[in-house]
Amino acid sequence: MATIYEVSRLAGVSLATVSRVINNTAPVREATRVKVEAAMNELGYRPNSVAQSLASNRSNSIGILVSELSGPFYGELLSRIEAEFRAVGKHVIIAAGHSDAEMERESIEFLRSRNCDALILHVESVSDNYLRGLADGGCAFVLINRYVRAIAERCITLDNRHGGYLATRHMLQLGHREIAYVSGPMWKNDAKERYAGHLEALAEFGVSENKALFFEGDFQETGGVRALQHFLAADASFSALVCANDEMASGAITAAHDIPLELPDQLSVIGFDNVNFSHYTYPKLTTIDYPIAEIGQMAARWVLKNVYSQTTTELKAIFEPRVIERDSTQKI
Amino acid sequence: MATIYEVSRLAGVSLATVSRVINNTAPVREATRVKVEAAMNELGYRPNSVAQSLASNRSNSIGILVSELSGPFYGELLSRIEAEFRAVGKHVIIAAGHSDAEMERESIEFLRSRNCDALILHVESVSDNYLRGLADGGCAFVLINRYVRAIAERCITLDNRHGGYLATRHMLQLGHREIAYVSGPMWKNDAKERYAGHLEALAEFGVSENKALFFEGDFQETGGVRALQHFLAADASFSALVCANDEMASGAITAAHDIPLELPDQLSVIGFDNVNFSHYTYPKLTTIDYPIAEIGQMAARWVLKNVYSQTTTELKAIFEPRVIERDSTQKI
DNA sequence: TTGTAGGCGTTATCAT
DNA sequence: ATGATAACGCCTACAA
């Protein structure tokens, strides 16, 4: 690889001048600029970004930490973030935290040691305190899908509680009163909030909570299967099933087919997230839209604005979920 | 951030010694090692990886280029690759090529300028020649899901042709003779090969090719929908539908439900890839397994061996597909 | 076993 | 507008 020095020699200028035309960080006479550019082309010169980073203390790379790299949810998130940064010549370095506090912490250290200019974090196990400490330590990061009051200005979230409310209200408005609920792991914040929204809707319609109609799943497909089996085995009476995410809803639908149970005639099912396989189910899944791509875009813009001082469209911190009505729910 | 220099001063040794304990690249007396480590801890020292890269000409980062970041297929691939490298302290820089030659080329340049030690490429638009040139230019890379004879030793592939053969043979063995085929874009190599396998199976069973039962889709869900509608509108007679990937199979199944068509009684459907939503469909999709995670792992090991000189398990260049029989196919 | 000193390829601060 | 020249933080012969 040619270096800036060789370019400068070929162009007959100093290497400082070459640097100037690369970054146009200072005026350069048109004639010299042309000479330099010609030299760069001739040598096929590409600036060494590592050296640039060392000298400028900027790496032009952004670290992304998500729980998993697979799965429809994170795929869309990453996709949007990458596109957004790529458009401005920046790179993403990606790591997975696997919902484990130790791995999350270690991943963050990992990304920091790579001199990332900023981090976009989707973490669920690390403590609020840790995050506050990170912020105090001068680490530039933005938090996705989690709200921590002390660093509210760095949080981009979905109103999970309202989403949970909408899902259950949707069932209630269809006339259902016996509504079973399949939650995610209750130690996860979004699971807790979605459930709170569920209770809120029930209260609003004067339906009292029935512990027998609650099941704590794992946000996985199998959790949905087990949930349905559990309710059936317990001989619970319910006409609607609210699932805290689409994976579990899919599992429940699969299990229902195996009973068999006619959907949505004998049971209405609603999911949460609107991941892209949600319309592969049969019947097509009614769900709550989680605008994950937009949230990813917003996180990227937060970084562009706060770290790279670029002017962008206005930032938005809270996104609103909404019902996507398809075929898996029906009036009773 | 503390530098190696500060550590050396605090420990009362030269900075070369500190470097040695960091990389243990030369013997260091136990006593000094302890002193240095104590100093590092006290200062919370973390080596600056950018400076390390510049000095050592190693970035400890691997560039990954895939067509898309979203979608079940690439998610699993990335997930496995990241895990494999992460375990040995290396990180991945990820870019998307969007099946476009220009973007693929640019992405490769992008990753190279980041001084990646190696690239793992899943490209479909860039020419064989370009890749050969890249290899000649001394770029360390391994190619996934594509075979280029001139650089065969860098290719890790699935036997797509055999997979196509297995899918259609499965239908033939179930007694089907009128088999419609939904292909991917024929300019893509895997689509072409899967189709070749299809023809091979037909020939083996003495079934002649029927152009009316061929439809070129786009590897997307909508392609499957359009395919089924196309065949039906053309009044084609067929009892089985072979789709070149699971997305299109899902689309076809959805469309079949809308007709409605009883599955698998009135129509058997098989997909290809065995992506993780393939059992969300109803009936659960019979498909061809594409061991994408294993392929990702193998690519990572290729890099570990050929670039980082690590000893790993033996490398494997060609993976074999196999039929995953679920509920969407049935004897006629 | 340890220290010295010269690079790695840029950026950035001075002069000129 | 352009050119020297010091950083940037670390690695690595080469010496000691």
TrEMBL record, chains A, B:
Boundaries of every HTH lacI-type domain copy: 2-56
Pfam families: LacI, Peripla_BP_3
Transmembrane segments: none
Superkingdom classification of source: Bacteria
GO molecular function, one term: transcription cis-regulatory region binding
Keyword vocabulary terms for this entry: DNA-binding, Transcription, Transcription regulation
Name this protein carries in UniProt: LacI family transcriptional regulator
